[in-house]
Amino acid sequence: MTDVRGATAVRYRERLSPSLWAIVSAAVAAPMAALVLTRIDTTLALVGGILVGVAIIALMIAGSPSVGVQDGVLTAGRAHIDLAHTGEVVALTGDEARYARGPGLEPRSWHVIRGGIDGVVIVQITDPDDPAPSWVMSSRTPDRLAAAVRRAQATPRTPYR
Length: 161
Description:
By secondary structure, the protein is α+β, with helices and mostly antiparallel strands.
């Protein structure tokens, strides 16, 4: 993809939506709501149960954070940082990712971690004014996210005039 200045624009976006098992678990609320409403009316119970199940799943998906790289900015959830203030990027999977999300987790880091997503990307922050030493982000494709960050770090940015 090229931008108006002719340079290659690095873009990556991933929504950290809930896993299938989390959605199935949330769908259990539908029959529970239906059971509560059964004493009033069975038709109301059926409709109410379906509406509750759909509403919970829709809220889970709509409330999912995203991670991305665009125009030299890394976004993780509601936070964003200019990639000029970032350093080393590490993509982890398997046991290394579990350790990074668990005992190896730096408490001062910015975390966007979702259960059910195995991969983790850790981006070091070089800005001395930033209280977070790194960002720890879940990713289904940690290699692609790390590569997008590295490409955007290496891409020179020309300021708009």
